[in-house]
Amino acid sequence: MGADSGTGDNRLGDIEITDPKAMRALAHPVRLAVLERLQRDGPATATQLSPHVGATPSVTSWHLRHLAGFGLVRDAAEGGSDRRERRWEAVARGFRFQMPEDAEGTAAARALGWEMLARAAELAERWATDTEPRLEPAWRRVAKLADTRIVVSADELAAIDDAIEAVLAPYVLRDAADRPRDTRGVRLLRHALPEAAEAAAEDTEA
To answer: Is 181 inside any structural domain?
Structure first.
């Protein structure tokens, strides 16, 4: 097992990935796509997932079993006894990980981070090309692209992230029955990208 249920500072109930082997297991485009689809749409079989993740049903099934070995997916509660129609579900709504200090953990976290950044870039490009042109005016007005630079300490950045999650948590955790009728899915891509020490020194001197 390489993941734990979210606790402590984790306001959104994400699963915490701590094992470098689990990070490396998830640093794969098909596995990330599988997990994302289950988190978004709920339980599904490998056959149902296959058209959306770029793999055959048999390959998708293999990736699902691999994810299950690290505690990221599991058999869905309503799954039947027919193994050919085995239904899977994500263990949590989302996942998170931190950069370990040892060499193995750092390399694994970087591999997962690179894959996540690649997927985020692809998602943003698809949105700009395919989705944004079809949005209604009301939704186009509230769609946001921002690039804001701030000068903060590590503790302040952690506090900002916690404050953002405090705002998001009620929307992430509420039941479907409590949502207004006009809701739709929105992807919030959060990147906190600290600059190198040289840039920090320049800000201090300014």
So the answer is: yes
Tell me if 116 is assigned to some domain: no
Q: What CA–CA distance (Å, rounded) separates 49 from 64?
A: 10
Host domain of residue 24: 3-96
Number of H helices, E strands in the chain: 8, 6
Is 15 in a helix, a strand, or coil? Answer: strand
Residue 192 in domain:
yes
Is pTM beyond 0.85? Reply is: no
Do residues 3 and 16 lie in contact, with contact meaning Cβ atoms separated by under 8 Å? yes
Give domain status of residue 121, yes or no: no
Domain-terminating residue out of 96, 116, 133: 96
Q: What is the pLDDT of residue 8?
A: 45
Contacts 24+ apart (CB under 8 A), 143-149: none
pLDDT digit string (tens) for 50-104?
A: 999 999 999 999 999 999 999 999 999 765 545 557 999 999 999 999 889 999 9
